[in-house]
Predict the structure.
Amino acid sequence: MPRGKKRKEARDRAATKVKELERQLDVAKKNLRQLGGRLEEDLQQEVADRAADRTIHDLEVQLEHERQRREELEKKMDAMTRAMALMRAREDEKDEPDEVAKPVKKKLKKKPPKAEGHVTLRRVPPPYHD
């Protein structure tokens, strides 16, 4: 046999052996876990999970703090907006002249001509008492 063919067969046998050993390793890991054992990779995963949970908790606390701060700032802004509106209203009152405004005359509608034989009754308002 040529030398290249032997090498290829040897590589194929080695790859097959690696796959078989990986399968056996997986079975052994599952058996260990079922018997209550812990693997190093499981411990590392738990540490990573705890770190992620801690980070999530810290970020949630920070988010809540920022929400409360935003609400406080919005309350202050609303109070300042009301104060500014009140100040503007007072300033406008000072700027207005004390003259009495002239009454606005209403335009009267033209009444249609009265037909003969009809009487129009008008309601008289009750007298005004102070």
